[in-house]
Amino acid sequence: MGMPVQARAAAGVLAALALVTVLVPAFAQLDQSLVNLREAGLPPSLAHPFGTDEVGRDVLIRSIYGLRVSFLVGLVAALVSMVIGGLVGLAAGTLGGLADRLLMRVVDGFNALPHLLFGIFIVAMFAPGAVAVVVSVGVTHWTTAARIVRAEVLSLRARPFVEAAISGGSGRLRVARRHLLPHLLPHLLLATVLMVPHAIWHETALSFLGLGLPPHLASLGNMINDGQRSLLTGAWWSSLVPGLFILVPTLAVAVLAQHWRDRLNPRRRSELNL
Amino acid sequence: MRAAAVMAAWRAAFAVPVLVLVSVGMFALAQASPFDPVRQYLGERAAVTSPEVAEEIRRSWGLDRPLPEQYTAWLGNLLRGELGDSRTFHLPVAQVIAERIGWTLLAVGAALVLMLAASLAVGTYAAWRQGSWIDRLIVGGAYANEAAPVFWLGLLVIWVFAVRLDWLPAGGLTDAAAATVEPGDVLRHMVLPVTVLAISQSSWLVLYVRESVIGTLREDFVIGARARGLRERTVVVWHALRSALLPFLTLLGTRTPELVTGAILVETVFSWPGVAGASVRAALAVDFPLLAALTLLGTAAVLLGNLLADVAYTLADPRVRTLGVA
């Protein structure tokens, strides 16, 4: 049985976006600070499929650059949160007992916090920029990975091969590295893939609020922020088009993740017919 | 009732250490940051102020004391309600919050009511019509809505309803020309932000209600109700929906962080004069007293949301009520 149509389309969209973000910067150079007032605020046309912004920059090309920047920042932020969460989860799962209970309470506490508010606080205290964004997303989003890794470690520890390794005299570190990590990696990888769109969302939200990446940089959040004023005079393209570059890949990842989950749980697939 | 009270007391007791930890975390972050309050206070005068004077200010503000002492002084002031002055609004922080929190509660409350009513109706309808084109449309729309950033959705709505159709104002609390705050005027300005906030939070609820109702439609008591010849609407609403409702009280509580996030972005997009939007302005101006107070307020709101959800759940589910807290 092959993939359902939606999942196939989602994979296609992601592949196409990846290709475009790699190829376009190689062919169309973008001067980040270029201003061309003669072409300012042009509506969509053949030369500029999505028009130009208020200082005459092509919206499509800038959006593609923005997607690249947002994706890189999002990926790094997701990796940071996975590393923090992975270590905490591994510690909670292998140490057990009081340490486990304490760490999981911390996870619960962090999970209940309003993430964006704390992100805003961190960014405000450490001067906006890519590093502040990565830190603010990483510090507030590691809990998912910690939960996943802990649960997996607990189930792995009861398996015969781990028991055999322990009774064979393997130390804690060796068990963690040789026997647990290889089983944990696929789960962490999936969690990272799912985290990237969310991290991108955070980066764009912070940039939109003026608290993210430097304003001259072509990032999706900056573009939506810049385009707000021209929106009120009817120029919808300079702020609404960059938003589509957030919406479409996020939706594609969500559809793929749903497909993944359905595959892992066939009962649900047949019952709910989603 | 007793179970609910015990649970509420437990939750409230748990909230205190969380809030203290959050305040310690904020204080530590502020200490670790390159941000210098004295420099900020002096502003452009920093270049012409002698280091001795700057040191004098530092001493008079107690910034030369050991960190634990500074922290307890700050926390003490916080508990006494002395929140300091906001640089952004040139007012005491307590006054800024008092003036703005009502508007936030109004907008968020209205959005919650709208979100609940609409999601229940739409989710139940989709479940009842499971597999039809309208069900597919609802599910697809919910996924797309979940993927759309709320600030983008807000701009889209502004463009359609304020710019193109010119039906409703694009932002603010009242018309620019209005001298007083008239209820009708505020209501007109509320429609777009409240709707956007409600829609942005509703995807998971619609999908949840739909799945839940589909699940209960297969249960024996629903089949029994159908077999007894009850009307379809009675079966769906009174049998399937009612028993599908319980878990979502808890879910609603766990979603309060998202609600705070949504309020921040929506208030900013629509220039709504609430506390959530004020946190962004405070952050842009590195207005530590206001930002710290609002961050604590947001955390307290989330904890309160969790508490209310748990209490409601205990009161609503007879199994929890009689068997005690699991």
Question: What's a concise summary of this model?
Answer:
The complex is a heterodimer of chains A (274) and B (326). By secondary structure, chain A is mainly α.
What's the structural blueprint in terms of helices and strands?
The complex is a heterodimer of chains A (274) and B (326).
Chain A: H1 5-27, H2 59-95, H3 97-111, H4 115-125, H5 130-140, H6 143-157, H7 160-167, H8 172-208, H9 220-231, H10 237-264, H11 266-272
Chain B: H1 2-32, H2 37-42, H3 51-60, H4 67-79, E1 85-86, E2 91-92, H5 93-128, H6 133-147, H7 150-164, H8 183-217, H9 220-227, H10 232-254, H11 256-269, H12 275-284, H13 288-316, H14 318-323
Antiparallel strand pairs in B: 1-2
Domain ABC transmembrane type-1 (chain A): 67-257
Subcellular location (chain A): Cell membrane
Membrane topology (chain A): Multi-pass membrane protein
